[in-house]
């Protein structure tokens, strides 16, 4: 299977999150995933959360990658990765009702079919995958290294 990978370097500035969303929308459309499709909105939200976490919690530049399997417009999995130079693992939190932050990884857990993280060089890579056309049902099962897999 052929995989198309595109990437964007993101600076350590919160304004970069908007640039990452715009870049992602154009790359999704170029892969055949229309801007009006629910999958596009889900992926852009996931990208926004992962890039925000990297920029806000590490203060380091990051690299955003999207990987599309062959025929991503019709079927397959879209993988999003954000790599940064911080070796601190992601820490999912439970935000209170009035909290204005702390929901990023909770959103990723709820929207992605799978997600996790792994060390990469002196830093880490956080990733998530969305299966095109797969319903979001079932419960999450945690696996080693923070990997989360949804089972129908």
UniProtKB/TrEMBL annotation:
This is ATP-binding protein. Keywords: ATP-binding, Kinase, Nucleotide-binding, Serine/threonine-protein kinase, Transferase. Pfam families: HATPase_c_2 (PF13581). CDD domains: HATPase_RsbW-like. Residues 12-126 form the Histidine kinase/HSP90-like ATPase domain. PANTHER family: ANTI-SIGMA-F FACTOR RSBW, ANTI-SIGMA-F FACTOR RSBW-RELATED. GO terms for molecular function: ATP binding. InterPro entries: Anti-sigma-factor_SerPK (IPR050267), HATPase_C_sf (IPR036890), HATPase_dom (IPR003594).
């Amino acid at each position: 299977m052929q995989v198309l990978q595109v990437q964007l370097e993101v600076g350590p500035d919160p304004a970069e999150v908007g640039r990452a969303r715009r870049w992602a929308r154009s790359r999704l459309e170029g892969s055949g995933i229309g801007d009006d499709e629910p999958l596009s909105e889900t992926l852009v939200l996931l990208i926004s959360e992962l890039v925000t976490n990297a920029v806000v919690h590490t203060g380091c530049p990051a690299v955003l990658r999207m990987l599309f399997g062959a025929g991503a417009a019709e079927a397959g999995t879209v993988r999003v990765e954000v790599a940064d130079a911080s070796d601190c693992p992601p820490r999912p939190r439970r935000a209170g009702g009035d909290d204005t932050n702390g929901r990023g990884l909770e959103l990723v857990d709820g929207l992605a079919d799978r997600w996790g993280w792994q060390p990469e060089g002196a830093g880490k890579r956080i990733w998530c995958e969305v299966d095109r056309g797969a319903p979001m049902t079932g419960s999450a099962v945690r696996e080693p290294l923070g990997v989360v897999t949804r089972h129908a």
